[in-house]
Structures are given as C-alpha cells and as structure tokens.
C-alpha cells in the first residue's frame, strides 16, 4: 500500500472562489512564444562563474523557510531504499538531488499556502497519518518504522514532512479546485453511451509519469525523462518514481490513471502508444503538448466482458528434481521418462498415483487466480481443457514440472464502468489540469534564495 492511500482527506469544500483559478494568469509586459521572447544568441558565452548546468547549489530558503542539505539527504535515502539494486552514476545522483530539492520546494509552498488560507495541517494530524502509514502501509509499529527509516539514512521527520505537504495540498485542492470543477450529467451520459456502444472493446489501466517542459528547458527535461526510463528498466519502482518525479496530480497515487479508454487520454501520441502496449510494458518518454510522458501498462480488459484472467483455477503441480551429481545424460533420461508418464495420464484422477510411481511430487492448489500466475503461464493455462497439462518447464539443474488443470471457475460478466466512475474520471482530469496551473502560480510568486 502506498503512503498516499493511507492518508485521509481532511479538507472540506467551501463556497469561496479562488480568483486566480478562474482564468489563466497573464504575465505583465510583452508576450512572445518560446525563446523568441528573449532574442537569444545562438552562441552563448558565460561572462563569469560556473557555467556547468549540472553543478547547482543544493539548499534553499523558500519564502523564509529553510531547506537544508540534511533534508535532501534524508529524502534521497528514502527514495534510494525503494529502488532495489539500481546503481546511479554521479551525474544521475546529482540530478536526483536536484529533483528532490524541487519536490521539497513544492511541498514547502503547499504547506505555506495552506497556512496562509487558515487551513494549516497540525502536528497531531501528521502523527496520526504517520501511524496509519506505519501500521497499514508497512505492517510496523511506529517505533519499528522510526528505526527502519533511521537505518536507511532517512528519518521520521522526512516522511512526516512529505505527509504534511500531501495533506496541505489535498486541502487546497478541496477548497480551491474541486468546488469549481463541474461535470454535467449530459457529459457523463454521452460518455456512458459511447462506452455501451463500445462493449467488447479494450479498456486500459495505465500509470503515467508526466514532466512539464517548455521550449527553453525541453532538451534538459527530455534527458531527465530518458534517465528515469533507464532506471525503471533496471528495476526501479514505477510508483516510487511517479510519486517523486511526476508533476501530475496522480503522483499521490503513484501515477495510476485508473481504468480508462484511450480517447480519455485526449492525446493522440499517448493513445497510439498505449494501443500497442501489453501489460507490464513501459514506453517513453513521449513528447506531448506541455511536456513528456512515461507510460506503464498496468493491465487491460474488454469493456462489458468478463476477463478470462479473473478465472480461479484448480491446479496440480507435478514435478521431479535431479539428485546432486547426476550426469546430464541421466538427467535427460529422467526428464524424458517424466514427460512420457505425464503425457499418458488420464486426467487428474490418476495423476497422483502415476506420479508416485516414478517418484514425482504433486502439489494441489484449488483456489489460484490466473492473474497470480506468471504471465508466461497465463495464456497456456487458459487454453487447456480439464485434465490437460502445460508444456514442461524448468531445466536439468533445478528440476522439471508441469501444471495440470483440474477445475476452472470463470468470472461473471462485467457491466463496464459505472456512471459514478465515469464522472470521477472526467473530474479527475479537470482537477489535474487546474492543480498543475495552481502549483505553477505558487512557484512563480515564490521568493526562493539558494545557498
């Protein structure tokens, strides 16, 4: 369970309007598109100072609140602990530190804004959410979580700071965004009708990491996005990276967009990419208006149709091992005998007796969902009739096994997304867009001094 899912929404909508969200903010002075506004030379020569863009100052004062090097180190340790064995170059570590600093700046701005609007998050609320996360999210007591965080070079204070930022931001959105995002019954009805007409077509559950970019910083953001993709391919946690890097409001749930149809993405580039993806596949970075997206196909299903992978199977695993020191020739002969006996079995009724005759082991499991099985086994098992087995798998070192199908409970037909789910999906997209603009305004108006 992610940290975000353990947090309770505390804010309550009010009838107060937030003026700067009513229309896009307009900067004073002459406006021009992209870098044309600055009439920049092609050959830039720095007059003095360090002209290496990868070497930056590490700490900051945000509207008077200090972010220390210790704050960055402890948050970095928390992130690194979720990434397993991923190794970082010095350049990647430097970029990660800069991203952590940017996130800490955003959290500070969110906490400050909540306080200004008399919605400050109390220490008691943070402690309660922290305890909830320890027990429900990590299966630990508070002292155990405290000790764990210290052991990895982080601290309870670091994660509590993140909790406070999330609670503050949620309150701000509840007061200043949600009440002014409306979804009409007509819009929902039209989407629902299209879904009914599309029964049998595919619905997707996607994860997204979105990085905003403009013509000035496009190349740097693209390089950062490419590094994230490389680290994810090396085994990094998509949820952890989404929570740390994504600039979409879905970062709080690890980038999970939920179940959607591709047209709901409202981006032809993303639609085309997702249509070609299979569950577990990662693609990106994909350039779209406003920045870059990294997509993970979490799952997919057919609208209004039962998903065969929701079936629950009754299986027998029949296997043999090889004694230490057995020659390859003897192991091959033993495997051949095993396969011959398995192929001659008359279903599940005589499997145990026939397996015992050749010293094979049998393990029964009567309640195993197809989704819990390795993906490579799901399709072969779904194609079996009762009493049939999968092709043998394994090797001559660890052993050889088959799975025999002894029963199958198919899922009931589904009715597709409900009216409420459709409304929530449309609303979430609109909230996300306004939330991004809100945070950009906070950054623009902030006084930030780097140390």
Automatic annotation (TrEMBL):
InterPro entries: OMP_Chaperone_SurA, PPIase_dom_sf, PPIase_PpiC, Trigger_fact/SurA_dom_sf. The keyword ATP-binding does not apply. Pfam families: Rotamase, SurA_N_3. Keywords: Isomerase, Signal. GO terms for molecular function: peptidyl-prolyl cis-trans isomerase activity. PANTHER family: CHAPERONE SURA. This is Parvulin-like PPIase. It comes from Aurantiacibacter gangjinensis. The lineage of its organism: Bacteria, Pseudomonadati, Pseudomonadota, Alphaproteobacteria, Sphingomonadales.
